[in-house]
Structure formats: C-alpha cells, structure tokens
Design brief:
With 346 residues, this protein is of the alpha+beta class. A hairpin with a 4-residue loop joins strand 2 and strand 3. The structure holds N-hydroxy-L-asparagine.
Length: 346
C-alpha cells in the first residue's frame, strides 16, 4: 500500500511537472519529502528522546509540560531540570563530579528549530539549572555563549540564586582522588560520565533540543566539553532533524558530531543510519582512538523518526510520547564494526 501511494504521488508529481515546467524542482523535492515521511515509523507527537535511562523522567516531565499547555522551550528546559536537580546523578547538575580543584563546573545549551536560535553556558559554577541560564542567554542577549565568571555574573544579575553544587559525597570522593597520587588524571568511564541531551518534536513537526552536563570528572578547571557547543553536543535544523551527543566530549567536538549526524540525515539517512555513519566517519578520521572513542548519538528526524548509535556497548536512551514511555537500546558499534573492515575505507 505504501508503494502504491508513493507511486501515485510520484505520478501526480510528474503530471504537475508537465503542466508547470518551471516548478519541476519544487515538485521533485516534495515527492522526496513524502517518500521519507511514509517510510518513517508512525509516532505520536509531541515526542521527546533523551540520552541514557535517567532521561526517561526528563522526557516524561517534558511531555507533561506540553500536555499542560507549556511551550516546547518550556518542555525542554523543565524536562532537563529533573536530571539537573537529581543529586544521585553524578554527571549532571547538583551532585556532579567536580573539577580537579573541587568545584562543580557545568555546561549546557538549548536550541530552537523554528527560529534557529541557540543559547549556551560553559564552565558555570554555583547555578542549579544551567539549562535555564542557557535559555536566558538565548532570549535576553545578542550572544550565543557565555562562559565562566561572566556566565555566572549574568545568571545572578538575572535573578538566579547561588546554589552549592558539591555534595558531601562528591567532596569525599574528590578528596580521595586528590590523595591518590597515582590516579591524578581526569576520569571518564561508565561510572564517571553521563550527560542529558534531549530532543523534541511538536505536533507541527518543529524541532527543539537541550543538553546539560557536569562533564569530565576531575577535569582541568575551565575545560569545556562538547555539550554546550552548538553543532557538537547538540544541533537542531528545523528542515531536517536534530541530534545530541554523550560520551567523551573531546572526541565529539573535534568532529562537530551532532551537526554531522544532522547532515547525514539531510543526505537521506534515517536517524539510526545517520548516527552510525557519523561514528564511522569519526573513526575514519581518528583511527588512533578507535578502541577508545566513547561517542554516542541520538537523532530525531523532521518526519518524527528517531534512533541512536554509539561505541559504548551499553548505551541506552529514553523516549516519551502520548503513546509510550520507554528505554531503548542504541545500536552498539563495536570496534570491528567501525574499524577498517567494517568502516567505509576502501
Ligand atoms: C563531556 N560529553 O563533557 C560530556 C560528558 C558526557 O557521557 O557526555 N558523558 O565530555
């Protein structure tokens, strides 16, 4: 039935092209667009996806915001609040692992598809909800990104109250890390990193996204990862799709990871294929880091299809729509799958 409908549409597009030759190009692109939407899974909108299983509570909160009449920007912001406020989450917001000096430094960004706008903060301290400061940067300033003391001053000037983000538990761990001379290097492994990247599509098909993290545990003070960098940790293109990243930021930001995923979708890849292709491209350019890339992407297409892929065996992500709320396993790309034999190299 899908095929017949597609043929019919392509056929009628052909007739239109004959009767309006100068519009041939526009007709062709609308046929392609319909074909893509027919092959996308049927989803109910609004829909939110977020990295990791802890993203489920954030996606559900975002959905609830829209169901109560809130905007998509409110939904992304308030969905991410849930993870930022969770003291048990050691890699986002309060309770996050501090930097090498014992200060919790947070990165966050937000992006809106319809107006292609963005706001971002990097290495900000003493702020409970960096996602909200990123939103304020987007809405109240002519800038896209503020970092460090300037970002903090901006937040306080705009009514944010200071919050001590270092929990007693993390202080104890940081002290132990400092005492252990032999392991005095940043820690990034399954236990020491996680980030929330959240993407959403509304009933009109408009796309939005946000991202928040405390980043690489015990990082050098001032280090900013991929998460607040537009195009690296997050990218939204309202014509094509949106993507977000989690993992080792240095390996994502050297390749403009999320932008790359969106461009793969622009070239016709499904969200899962786009994530896989981006991982392969990164592996090709970065063979020395092959076994150690630690990059994971989630993607959402303009048609509402979603998917993910990552180098971590256990990468999982969350999805919520009026129809369902669940945790999904991402396509796991082993070193063999992305290496010379499995990669695109000739
Ligand atoms: C960073 N990408 O700061 C973040 C950390 C992360 O899963 O996503 N961990 O490098």
């Amino acid at each position: 039935m899908t095929v017949n409908r597609r043929r019919f549409i392509q056929g009628s597009a052909g007739l239109s092209a004959i009767s309006a030759m100068s519009l041939g190009r526009a007709v062709e692109s609308s046929a392609t667009c319909v074909e893509m939407s027919l092959s996308a899974p049927q989803i109910e909108k609004p829909l939110f996806i977020a990295t990791w299983p802890f993203g489920k509570a954030s996606c559900e909160a975002a959905l609830q915001v829209t169901q109560q009449g809130g905007s998509m920007v409110d939904a992304i912001e308030q969905g991410i609040w849930v993870t930022e406020a969770d003291v048990k989450n050691a890699s986002v917001g309060i309770g996050g692992i501090p930097n090498a000096a014992g200060d919790v430094e947070l990165d966050a960004c937000i992006m809106t598809g319809p107006d292609h706008n963005a706001g971002s903060v990097g290495a900000i301290q003493d702020v409970l909800h960096p996602i909200s400061v990123a939103r304020m940067v987007m809405e109240k300033t002519p800038h896209v990104m503020l970092v460090g003391d300037g970002a903090q001053r901006f937040a306080f000037d705009n009514g944010v109250s200071p919050t001590d983000l270092l929990t007693a538990e993390q202080r104890k761990r940081w002290q132990a890390w400092q005492a252990a001379e032999s392991v005095k290097k940043p820690q990034i492994d399954e236990d020491h990193h996680d980030t929330i990247a959240m993407l959403g599509i509304d009933t009109k098909g408009d796309l939005y996204g946000g991202c928040s993290t405390s980043g690489w545990g015990y990082k050098i003070p001032g280090r900013i990862g991929d998460s607040p960098i537009i195009g690296s940790g997050l990218y939204v293109d309202n014509q094509v799709g949106a993507a977000g990243a989690t993992g080792l930021g240095e390996n994502v930001m050297r390749h403009c990871g999320s932008f790359l995923v969106v461009e793969m979708m622009r070239n016709g890849a499904t969200p899962t294929e786009a994530c896989e292709q981006a991982v392969r491209r990164i592996a090709e350019l970065d063979p020395k880091n092959l076994g150690n890339l630690d990059i994971n992407f989630i993607a959402l297409s303009k048609q509402g299809g979603f998917g993910a892929a990552g180098t971590s065996q256990g990468f999982r992500y969350s999805v919520a729509s009026p129809k369902e709320s669940r945790i999904v396993s991402a396509k796991a790309m082993t070193e063999k799958a992305i290496g010379p034999e499995g990669g695109n190299r000739k």
